[in-house]
Amino acid sequence: MASFTKIPANNKQGYKWVCIKDGPPDPATGARNQVKRRGDTKKEAEARCDEAIKKLGEHGLSEKDLKQLPFGRVAAEWLETYVRGGAKPGTIQRRKDSLKIIFSFMEHVNINRITPKLHQSMLNELFDSGYSKSTLDSVHVAANLVYKHALKERYIQSNPAAGATIPVKVRTVEEIENNPVENSYLERGELHQFLATVNEHGLTNDAPFFYLMAFSGLRIGEALALKWTDVDFETGNIRVTKTLYAPRNNMRTTVLLPPKTTASIREFDLDEDVMKLLKTHKAQQNQRILEKRLLTADFHNGNYVFANDSGYPTVHRQIEFRMKRLLKKSGLKKPATPHFFRHTHISMLTEAKVDLKTIMDRVGHDDPKTTLKIYTHVTEKMKKDAGQKLSSSYSDILKGLILQDS
């Protein structure tokens, strides 16, 4: 039921009507929420009051609150829903990291004042500051998710991220020529050189870890998540059902998560010699556990294949440090990372003339893009090598042909 009050005004008739109606109760306290609007006539005042009540019912906020609704508040509201939606811890952390970057630009900016131009200028400034494309992509995705939430709640009428362009660095001819496909994996000779260095200078766990990586094509998170129950010494098979996530590379806060994709869940056979190496590694690990668990109160027996002396799983950062150390000692110049071994394994299988589908199944790829890129490069190289081998084998005949032709 509406009530009306006449008040003095500087208009032609000398007064205005104020309409007062009950709007939706406060969503947090349930308290009564009265809405007031003015008009030159009762009809106009009531129409404005009804419009305000309608908007209030849509998102539970008054027009005044909407004008004071910063991006940071909407982002926090979205994040709470996002976390409850079952996103993986690693993904949640990436979203939080992206929001921190966005907050440096617009945490306190009213959500209604964020325009496509402002969103684009943020991306452009991040690009100019040297942020990687993956970071720009993550920032854009996180902002877009917040805007979509705001749209759903009717805080905004349009999405400022719609139609945005992610800046991309244009590669020079020199960069293209200096970054061929073979720079994403180790050639046969390079792999031999690296593993020889591992044999001579490797620390505890280095040899079994890097040999396994090269001869399995596992992702680093998959390898670090392996437990001895995933290794079948009878059949020579490895089972992949999880990946290791270590927030801030802290071994005490590691979490086992489902693999990257459904295709990542797999089982495959491993080279007999590498299996023997793992068996030796297990025996040595058991001996260290017997010695160490009596000396430390902080012992964690998680049954990990690559556990440290306290039983905790090894984390990504430690592997990266160890690999850098071994690369330096090996003299290899490629800026290799643990992921190189995955690509190296694909090249090894290709050289062994394993078909593309089998390779993809073995490494857990459902998108052929990366596999196909390396597969095509190696097969083209094999064709070229075949021609050179043929020329070398029949060089005497070819030489005679050239002599006759001249």
TrEMBL record:
Location of region: Disordered: 18-43
Domain Tyr recombinase span(s) in chain numbering: 181-388
The entry's keywords: DNA recombination, DNA-binding
SUPFAM superfamilies: DNA breaking-rejoining enzymes (SSF56349)
GO biological process: DNA integration; DNA recombination
Domain Core-binding (CB): 69-151
Transmembrane segments: none
UniProt-listed InterPro entries: CB, DNA_brk_join_enz, Integrase-like_cat_sf, Integrase_catalytic, Integrase_recombinase_N, Tyrosine_recombinase_XerCD
Keyword Acetylation assigned: no
GO molecular function, one term: DNA binding
Family: Belongs to the 'phage' integrase family.
Protein name as catalogued: Site-specific integrase
